Amino acid sequence: MTKRMLFIIISAGICFLLFPLRFSLIKPEANNTIFQFFFQFLSKVDSPYNQAPSLHVAFALLFWTVFRNLKSYWRALAAFWLLLLALSTITTYQHHFIDIICGAILAQISFIIFPFQKNNFQLRNFQVANYYFLVGWITVLLVLILNQFHAHFWLILVWIVLVIFMIGYQYQKNNIHFLKDRYGNIPFYKKVFYFPYRAIYWFFWKFLRKYTKPTRILPGLFISSKLDKTEIQDFDFNEKTFVYDLSAELEENDVIKEKSQYFCVPFLDIGSFELIVTKKLVLQITTNYTQLPAGGKILIHCTMGFTRSAVIGILVVKKILSLPLEEAIIIVTKANKHTVIQKYLQDFLKTNNL
Questions:
Q1: Is the peptide bond before 266 cis (omega within 30 degrees of 0)?
Q2: How many whole angstroms separate alpha carbon 281 and alpha carbon 311?
Q3: In this structure, what is the dihedral angle of CA atoms 349, 167, 212, 284, given to the nearest 10 degrees?
Q4: Cα–chain center distance at 292
Q5: Which of 28, 139, 309, 312 is a plausible cystine mate for 223, CB 3.0–4.6 Å?
Q6: What is the CATH number of domain 211-351?
Q7: pTM score
Q8: Could you tell me the sign of the dihedral formed by the alpha carbons of 148, 153, 154, 157, in that order?
Q9: What H or E segment, with its residue span, contains residue 222?
Q10: Half-sphere exposure (CA, 13 Å, Cβ side) for 136?
């Protein structure tokens, strides 16, 4: 909290010195005696040059990171008070709307540079959400600029802003089913609203994935990215095939759902693995593996095949073979050289008894 506050004050101060902006509109006279007193007091104590970024807004967002942990009544009261604090910058003719956005961007940058409990795996989703929120605020700034100079472009960006903020919110809540239901289907209205998000993941999946066929990590046990139609035909799915879809972004191919025993257990990309869900999933896959009929096989896949499927694959190999974690990691990474196990995942695997 202290580091964030110092960063905001120093950064804003530098901006005030380098860009001494002033309120550009004529301030109306306050006729009411009481309001006139307050506005005169404000003009005496407040410098006219501290425009962008707004410290009121930056501090409102900063204080919310503390007050959001209060109980329901006090939490609602704190949220309302901080909202009034941010809006006061407009009602007192101190700032333009763009100054508010700059203040929000500054606060969001402080959250990223000084994360709360950086090495706490359970807070990973909050850290990812902060990046989404930062991109969201920057996009709002872009909307304002385009609206000023190219008014016909800004509406579609408002849609994108809403999508970005909603995704950040879903990460904060660890809502793994914010797109796909428990059967792996995405309702039509979600397909429409989240189209930009899904389109980006489809592009990544189509052109940037490294593996175009499943990788065998044990006899009858495979990990992969989401498969296309040709790869589905090559893998030969049947009623003895178990498929575990860990992707939260893209729907499974209908052929896989129809021909195999399909399970949708999504995890948010580059986010945390909920401990209870992970344990239950690993136990289920391990049990099915030990009871596989002749010719049976298990496929674990996510969207890109880099992380989520690899992490679950490591845990399954560890449990099936009763291996130390390090040996299970070696088996999977040797089979799939493009596996990405970042430090926060290594800490999660080492510190939890899975």
A1: no
A2: 12
A3: 50
A4: 36
A5: 309
A6: 3.90.190.10
A7: 0.88
A8: negative
A9: strand 221-224
A10: 20
One pLDDT digit (tens) per residue for the chain, 354 residues: 789 989 998 888 888 878 776 665 566 666 666 666 556 656 665 666 667 788 889 999 999 888 888 887 888 888 898 888 888 787 776 767 788 899 999 999 999 999 887 777 778 999 999 999 999 999 998 888 887 777 666 778 889 999 999 999 999 999 999 999 989 999 999 999 999 999 999 999 999 988 778 999 999 999 999 999 999 999 989 999 999 999 999 999 999 999 999 999 999 999 999 999 999 999 999 999 999 999 999 999 999 999 999 999 999 999 999 999 999 999 999 998 888 888 888 888 888 777
Q: Which of 287, 260, 277 is nearest to 311 (CA)?
A: 277
User: What does DSSP assign to residue 121?
Assistant: G
DSSP string covering 173-218, please?
HT-TTSSS-TTS---HHHHHHTHHHHHHHHHHHHHH-S-SSPEEEE
Tokens linked to 133: 């929120």
Interatomic CA distance for residues 24 and 22, integer angstroms: 6
- Alpha carbon separation from 73 to 69, 77, 83 (Å, rounded): 11, 6, 16
- Token readout for 152 is 């016909």
Those residues with Cβ within 8 angstroms of residue 295's Cβ, 6 or more apart along the chain or in another chain: 238, 240
Phi and psi at residue 93, in whole multiples of 5°?
Answer: 55, 45
| Cα angle: 313, vertex 319, 321; to 5 degrees | 100
Residues recorded for the chain:
354
Both tokens of 249, joined, read 């972004």
168, β-bridge pairs:
none
Cβ atoms within 10 A of the Cβ of 225, count? 25
Distance (Å, whole) CA 185 – CA 246: 13
pLDDT for 15: 81
Every domain of the chain with CATH number 3.90.190.10 lies at 211-351
**What CA–CA distance (Å, rounded) separates 138 from 53?**
13
